[in-house]
């Protein structure tokens, strides 16, 4: 055995140990990210559930609590973009003057994709059951942001069929 062989074995073992430690750290990081994504997804779904409940009781201001209360909020609908929380609220009130016009809201086919710890997108389908005014439905794409620890809709692109 040469004098370099024990040194080589130590270096090899050290390298393997570091490699395994790196793999373990990467695995732990991936698991933490999955847990964080799952928590974000659950929180985002809760925002939508709370919005649905507010809408179905005729509470547009309560529904708007799920939106970012900022002039940077953007709602993109049939009439083009609307900027700002207050303008979006005013448009909802104008378009849905009473509970009959609002109907009963249902979201389905929700697909939440967490983009980073403070941003996500949601794709889904909406349906308003309105016995008097007639049902309407369509699809939406939401950009969600975590602002001050709370998930809110920062951008809403909704279409109707």
Outline the fold blueprint.
Elements: H1 4-56, H2 60-64, E1 74-77, E2 80-83, H3 85-95, H4 99-102, E3 104-116, E4 119-129, E5 136-147, E6 150-158
Parallel strand pairs: 1-6
Antiparallel strand pairs: 1-2, 3-4, 4-5, 5-6
Verbal overview:
The chain is an alpha+beta fold. The chain is 45% helix and 33% strand. It contains 4 helices and 6 strands. It has helices at 4-56, 60-64, 85-95, 99-102; strands at 74-77, 80-83, 104-116, 119-129, 136-147, 150-158. The chain has a 6-stranded mixed beta sheet with strand order 2-1-6-5-4-3, with helices on one face. Strand 4 and strand 5 form a beta hairpin. The longest helix is centred in the first third of the chain and has 53 residues, at 4-56.
Percent of sequence in beta strands: 25-35%
Structural class: alpha+beta
How are the strands of the biggest sheet laid out side by side?
A: 2-1-6-5-4-3
- Residues in helices, as a percent range: 40-55%
């Amino acid at each position: 055995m040469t004098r370099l062989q024990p040194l080589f074995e130590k270096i090899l073992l050290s390298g393997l140990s570091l490699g395994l430690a790196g793999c373990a750290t990467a695995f732990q990081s991936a698991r933490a990210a999955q847990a964080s994504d799952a928590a974000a997804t659950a929180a985002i779904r809760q925002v939508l559930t709370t919005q649905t409940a507010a809408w179905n009781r005729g509470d547009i201001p309560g529904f708007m609590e799920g939106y970012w209360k900022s002039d940077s909020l953007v709602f993109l609908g049939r009439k083009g973009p609307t900027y700002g929380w207050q303008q979006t609220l005013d448009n909802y009130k104008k378009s849905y003057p009473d509970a009959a016009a609002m109907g009963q809201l249902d979201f389905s086919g929700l697909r939440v994709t967490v983009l980073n710890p403070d941003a996500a997108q949601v794709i889904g389908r909406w349906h308003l059951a309105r016995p008097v005014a007639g049902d309407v439905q369509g699809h939406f794409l939401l950009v969600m942001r975590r602002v001050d620890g709370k998930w809110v809709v920062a951008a809403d692109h909704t279409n109707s069929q």
